[in-house]
Amino acid sequence: MTLNNWKTVGTNVRKVDGLALATGGSLFVNDLLDEDYLFGAILTSPHAHARIISIDTSAAEALDGVYTILHHENVQRVPHTTAGQGYPEPSPYDAVMFDNKVRYVGDRVAAVAASNEEIARKALSLIKVQYEVLEPVFDPLTAISEGAPVIHDQDDAKVIIPVFYDKSRNMPAKVETSVGNVDEGFAQADVIVEDVFETHYGHHCPIEPHVTYTKLDPHGRLIITTSTQVPFHVRRIVAQVCQIPVRKIRVIKPRIGGGFGGKQEILLEDVCSMLTLRTGMPVLLNYNREEEFVSSRTRHPSRCYTKVGVKNDGTITAIRLHVLLNTGAYGSHALTVGSNAGSKVLPMYPCENIDFKMEAAYTNLPVGGAYRGYGATQAVYGLEVLIDEAARRIGMDPVEFRKKNHIKSGQGSPIFKALGEGTEGVEMTIGSCGLDKCIELGAEAIGWGHKDPPSHPSKKRGKGCAILMQGSSIPHVDMGSATLKLNDDGSFNLLMGATDLGTGSDTILSQIAAEEIGVSIDMIIPLSSDTDVTPFDVGAYASSTTYLSGMAVKKTAALIRHQILETASEMLGSPVSALDIDDGVIKGGSREITLGDVGLHSLYGENQHQIIASASHITEKSPPPFAAHFVEVEVDEDTGSVEVLHYVAAVDCGTAIHPKLAEGQTEGAVANGLSYALTEQYFFNEKGRMLNPNFGHYKIFSSSDMPKMTTILVPTYEATGPYGAKSVSEISINGALPAIANAIQDAVGVRIASGPFSPDKVLAAMAKKS
Amino acid sequence: MIQISLNINGEDFDVDVSPDLTLLDLLRELGFHSVKKGCGEGDCGACGVIMDGIYCKSCLVLAMQANGRDVFTVESMGDVNDPHPLQQAFVDEGAVQCGYCIPSMLLAADVLLSENEDPTDDEIKEALDGNLCRCTGYVKQIAAVKKAAKMMREEENDAE
Questions:
Q1: What pTM was computed for the model?
Q2: Given this structure, which CATH class describes domain A136-194+300-425?
Q3: Structural domains in chain B?
Q4: In the prediction, which pLDDT does A425 show?
Q5: What is the DSSP string of A621-679?
Q6: Which of A100, A174, A492, A768 has the fewest CB atoms below 10 angstroms from its CB?
Q7: Would you call A27 and B39 a contact, using CB atoms and an 8 Å cutoff?
């Protein structure tokens, strides 16, 4: 355990970019444009499934102000994945910049660069495309059945790692694994509960839509300023798709207006780059809100067949989880989201007999991708609803049932080894686990076991809970690194590939550096991420930044601290071992000197050199954060409407480096989870067109919609993380679906097995019951 | 093109605008980058400004409708060296995550506090209701507005 005499870690220092943001600084991609630039726009498919017979751009090209038009006949065909994952990517290479086939309404057909937006949009309308409309398939089960139209019938679609891929059956991914003997496990059970749970499409809804700005510098290098979670993957994939060397590309990530997984994808960067390469001009390309909903990425919808066997004493004898994932028109993240549906859920309840299967289906609908929660959101819903049901059936309190069965410190799970990121996973035993405390404090906060009277005779109140786990980075896949250099005033440039997308990682990584060196945070000048300047990091995803990049920063800080002490030792004639750094002052020597003295001496004095250090970090494990969520709802029996009265999220994220930011991550994830569970929904017409691509009809929670919210951070110490930290960003998006479903069950006695819990659905379930 | 005159953050501007130019686009063209475009349809509120004392969404206002009016953006509230109490409180309370929705939310909060110096949670929720934020869950923003209100009341009392 820690002595916990930290000065910066664990405190709510001022978020390093907070005031610049709050005062309206020019910090986002759209604020950083040159005076003259072209406006890019993308023509998208009106058909869910069609072949392009011909494309005539002559009228558009003749329009004054049109600079170039890209389409499948004039750009190179380079199969790749748009998923911003490490190389070799586990997602299939099933995308090209422009294809002669379109696979969903919103798929790319052509792109134009013009002198302004009006001309660009006008040019799009003048492009004549002749389509051969093909039969679409929208249902994932139909899509993988015999005789379904083949969505990826091109020869060059492939996977680049040895994993299952069967495009002839519309199956981009499949994983099966089992432990013990599930049939025997179910035979031993006194009670078996099972159901099919459906999760729906959802969008990340960053308030800043995707935006990219590209230009050539005077040396002819391509400068990509882009709203991304993965700058280094952008560099690699743009190089691949545009067929130019990595060395010719610089990717700059300024401030990002939210990502949530949606910006772990190369969606605009390749097209925008190609428009610049063709015209030699700066180009701005962004999605409007409609394009953001339709053409960017979504949460993979799923059908999770879930079955749990328990004995009357509360022992779980077997769990079966079969997931059918709808990945839409492209297989971005399908394998890994599907695998995570198992690996981030099943280890929660150690059980000798587990059967997991995941199949992903291509359909002619919007494309799935990375989304906060990443598979766990989908699978934990059904499991946690059935755990409640099983507990009820054997007459055990659901909270007691979970306390008895959840994974504990020192326990492992065969699932960790069985399910990795497309390949085998890594064996792991749980280090820190504060789940008991989370359950205890959460239950207390919600008043578990106590029912208040409803506010109206037509309403019924209920309470529900769910427990959750996630991960912290991808072991043996993710890598983060950092560089620190000392300046002549004792300040430090902290250069990180780690990508702050609004989460506050620049702040917490600066805290880690400051703590390790022994200076105040004001002396740390963070810069993330510029591929010309900062060292590599896989980027901000898989709940990796605090745990993985944080450790890279901590290692770097330890190295530079040692260099500082060596120089100070020369200056003072005192041995390194006698010296210490305390709030920027070197103590223990013949006299006290400041880090500014050391910096100045190192740059201008004897033995001149730059004090600078870099370090990288990979992880051996992915320690799960844990959480217990509790909710109280009121269900109107006349209308079916569900009102959340109080939501409690108790979270074990190890050490919270910055408690307020950790709370903020939790509250934001809960808010997103709540509106996904209750109001967010894609509506499609029979031709696969999304009918509600705007905030007016795709309802995300505003301030008035938020219920009373209680966030409880339960400190534990994860020995493998920086200052005991684990991740916090994703986990709390997963609780609302199961916790609310359980609360509805408690209130009105019906199980809602598909999201969102809209009034019509709740009403129908109550009608069916009576 | 139509010539209009307007005052932005205390400074007079005479500009030629096309009839279909929105106030949002005009403000951004003039370099007021705090005014953000999140949807262009009046739903997200990232483009909020104060016009003649009323909080409004600048994507729904034509530039020529701003002719002769006073427009305030968050640039008028304070800067990094001298932030407004609301800006300070938002940062101190952890209400700023990505920050994209924050400038307009600050303006909405500013209008609220100019009318109500001690708002309740529900009044704050209502005032911020037109500003969508996907990062925070609004909890910290409500706390920040309350904190700023308290700071401003105390400042006023000290001044008296």
A1: 0.97
A2: alpha beta
A3: 2-74 (3.10.20.30), 85-159 (1.10.150.120)
A4: 87
A5: --PPPEEEEEEEEEEETTT--EEEEEEEEEEE-BS-SSHHHHHHHHHHHHHHHHHHHHT
A6: A768
A7: no
Q: Which amino acid is at A702?
A: S
CA closest to B86 among chain A residues: A22
Average pLDDT, integer, range A500-527: 97
Fold of A431-468+623-770: Aldehyde Oxidoreductase; domain 4 (3.30.365)
Tell me: pLDDT of B141 over 60.
yes
Residue A191 structure tokens: 């009670």
Please tell me the distance from the alpha carbon of residue A737 to that of residue A754, in angstroms, as a whole number.
9
CB A554, CB A516: distance < 8 Å: yes
Q: Which of A257, A696, A711 sits opposite B43 (nearest CB)?
A: A696
Question: Percent helix, strand and coil across chain A, each rounded to 5?
Answer: 30, 25, 45
Superfamily for domain range A32-134+204-295: Aldehyde oxidase/xanthine dehydrogenase, a/b hammerhead (3.90.1170.50)
The reply to whether residue B100 touches residue A694, judged by beta carbons under 8 angstroms, is no
What's the pLDDT at A320? 98
The answer to whether B136 contacts A257, with C-beta atoms less than 8 Å apart, is no
Number of neighbours of residue A691 by Cβ within 10 angstroms: 10
Residue in the structure block whose two tokens are 């030699």: A280
Q: In what order do the strands lie in the sheet with A593-594?
A: A580-582, A585-587, A593-594
C-alpha–C-alpha distance, residues A497 and A540, integer Å: 9
Residue numbers of B between 32 and 61 with CB closer than 8 Å to A = 32-41, 43-44, 46
Q: Are strands A612-618 and A580-582 parallel, antiparallel or unpaired?
A: unpaired
Identical fold at A136-194+300-425 and A431-468+623-770? Answer: yes
- Structure token digits, residue A728: 């916090």
CB A538 within 8 A of CB A230: yes
Provide the ipTM. 0.98
Q: Is B77 on the interface with A (CB under 8 A)?
A: yes
Chain A contact set for B35 (CB, 8 A): 24
Nearest to A538 by CA among A496, A579, A568: A496
Report in angstroms the alpha-carbon separations of A378 from A196, A391, A486, A595, A720.
12, 21, 46, 51, 28
Domain borders along chain A are 18-26+479-618, 32-134+204-295, 136-194+300-425, 431-468+623-770
| 3-class SS letters over A191-259 | EEEEEEEEECCCCCCCCCCCEEEEEECCCCCEEEEECCCCHHHHHHHHHHHHCCCHHHEEEECCECCCC
- Look over chain A and give the mean of its residue pLDDT values, rounded to a whole number: 97
Which residues, numbered 86 to 145 in chain B, qualify as contacts with chain A under a Cβ-Cβ cut-off of 8 Å?
87-88, 90-94, 96-103, 106, 124-126, 128-142
Q: Taking 60 as the threshold, does the pLDDT of residue A135 lie above it? A: yes
